[in-house]
Amino acid sequence: MQEILFRFLTWCVRRAIRRERPQIVAVAGSVGKSSTKLAVGIALNDADAFSGVRTSAKNYNNELGVPLTILDRHAPGRSVLAWMGLVARAKMLAVGFGKIGAKTLVLEYGTDHPGDLHHLISIAKPDVAVLTAIGAEHTEFFGSLEAVAQEERDIIRALGPDGIAVLNTDDSAVFAAKDETRGTVVTFGESPDADVRLLSYRVVVDGQNPESSGLDIHINTYGTNAQFRITGVFGKPHALAVSAALAVVIGLDDDIHAAIQRLRDQYHGMIGRTRLIEGIKRTMLLDDTYNSSPLAALSAIRDLSAFPVQEGKKRIAALGDMLELGTMSEEAHREVGKVVAEAGIDMLVACGTLAHVVRDAAIGAGMPEDHAFAFAKSPEAGLFIQERLREGDVVLIKGSQGVRMEKITKELMAHPERAKELLVRQSDEWEGR
After folding, report:
1. For residues 269 and 288, is the Cβ–Cβ distance under 8 A?
2. Has domain 275-431 been given CATH number 3.90.79.10?
3. Exposure pattern of 81-91 as b/e (b: 16+ CB <10 Å)?
4. What is the tens place of the pLDDT at every residue in 17-53?
5. Domains of the chain: which residue ranges?
6. According to the CATH classification, is domain 2-266 in 3.40.1190.10?
7. In this structure, which long-range contacts are made by residues 250-258, counting pairs with CB atoms below 8 Å and at least 24 apart in sequence?
8. pLDDT of 369 over the 80 cut
9. Which of 9, 30, 97, 121 is 20 to 30 Å from 360 at the Cα level?
10. What pTM value is reported for the model?
């Protein structure tokens, strides 16, 4: 029944797309999709109801989420009436009674299995395609990193001669796609050759007003230098998301200065994705609990190692299992443990079925045994950290969805009453799991 329903929604939105021909900006990649999608929407002024720009909500990036964005609806959940309303809206749109209501759609395209991206492209073929990065993700189903790369690059191959490919110059697997498109290529990254070059990014912590803490970014694009702060976030992924968004603006020949102003004022990241949260005992939490993959985990560890702390204060990495990696799983977890030690992190708290693999790898790479710990479940890990936390410490919390690392963040946050506002998976349905 579900498959029939999804096919019907797909058929309806395809008809609407072909009739109205909105501009499609699609974002794909192994990591950074949601943050980049958010940044692109802000840069193109989706906050203005008259701009005609609509950005997909939450992680609406699959066979249901993409049609929902086009239909301008939220997931009905278990409500029969909501599903009936969705079907009615789709049917009316398909036959021309009603419109999509947007001139530009900023969509996120995710892939769990081979062919997923091709299906989403068949629903809404992109005019602008952004490819963020390519790394080990869902290799349980793809089998190899090269298979993942081939799937992700489909979004670039799909562009027509008038299309715009926005590529990350720092990722060789992404940048190789420049030879696979008939469209115009606009690049972003730290490379000197990037059209939007990320010159620097630096976390700034304001102890007196934590909410003004964030990331100072310095970019250069076609001779124009810009320095600005985005608040509430940390780490390179946000700097790259903003850079990618500005590359889209350049490709579309929009106002770069207005886009920068909007990003400075409106971009605060998405919950659970490298967000700064005030912790108990005057500490700082680096909340990255939405999900995890090897590429994202290694990036977060490096951001933690560069995070400013006073002398004598600790950098703590609370890392949960990375799931759906198949035969690459143990090797990927060993690499994470090794990098934790090499990065000089003061304490490791690993969670999940492969926690011992991460801990043993960290110890093997030089971390003292009494600085590395392994737990089966996140709640007990949260209590362990809470007992050892001291003023001025910084804690990175990251893991795949199934490990529920947000429970650690909730244990350590200064204002747990704001958990539903600031943390992922806080609905009654999730709380019961």
Report:
1. no
2. no
3. eeeeebeebbe
4. 999 999 999 999 998 999 999 999 999 999 999 999 9
5. 2-266, 275-431
6. yes
7. 250/186, 250/195, 250/196, 250/221, 250/222, 251/128, 251/164, 251/166, 251/184, 251/186, 252/44, 252/128, 252/164, 254/43, 254/44, 256/221, 256/224, 258/45
8. yes
9. 30
10. 0.91
